[in-house]
Amino acid sequence: MNSVARENRNLILMNPIVTLRAALLCAIANVKSISTLRRLSIEGPSLTDADLASLASVTQLEKLSFESLDLADARLPQLHAFSFLKSINFVLCPKGYPLEIQSQTSSL
Q1: Do 67 and 94 fall within a single domain?
Q2: Do 22 and 43 share a domain, yes or no?
Q3: Which tens digit of pLDDT belongs to each residue from 53-95?
Q4: 96 against 7, higher pLDDT
Q5: Are the CB atoms for 76 and 100 separated by under 8 Å?
Q6: Looking at the predicted structure, is the pLDDT value of residue 12 above 60?
Q7: 3-state secondary structure (DSSP) of residue 42
Q8: Which among 10, 17, 35, 76 counts the fewest CB atoms within 10 Å?
Q9: Residue 67, CA distances (Å) to 7, 9, 17, 82, 100 in order
Q10: What's the confidence (pLDDT) of residue 64?
């Protein structure tokens, strides 16, 4: 177990509110360590800007899909960090993202 996973496990045991954050940080660290991973789908409502930056460092990915990611205008520039991807999808069920957001993400 690496030091990040050990630290996150300890946080989970100490505080249930921290459980989701710690589990997510541990998951991103683990995903990054899988050098053969090419596709990833992740549910995004709880992703922070720091999580997005961390995910952008998983450069072995070719395809990434976000479900329910909050795509406020201020957050869109951060998505340029994913320009190495062959494909990126944004899924918002049941009503979908507004047309203006769709047009801005299609140019990534």
Answers
A1: yes
A2: no
A3: 989 999 999 999 988 888 888 888 998 999 999 999 888 766 7
A4: 96
A5: no
A6: no
A7: strand
A8: 35
A9: 28, 26, 22, 16, 18
A10: 92
How confident is the model at residue 73, as a pLDDT? 84
Determine phi and psi for 73, rounding to 5 degrees.
Answer: -55, -40
Residue with tokens 């203006």: 100
The residues facing 87 across adjacent strands are 63
Q: By the 8 A CB rule, do 93 and 68 touch? A: yes
CA dihedral 30, 75, 20, 92 (to 10 degrees): -100
Partnered with residue 89 across adjacent β-strands are 65
Which strand (E) or helix (H) includes residue 94? none
How many distinct structural domains can be found in the chain?
A: 2
Question: What's the domain range around 29?
Answer: 1-33
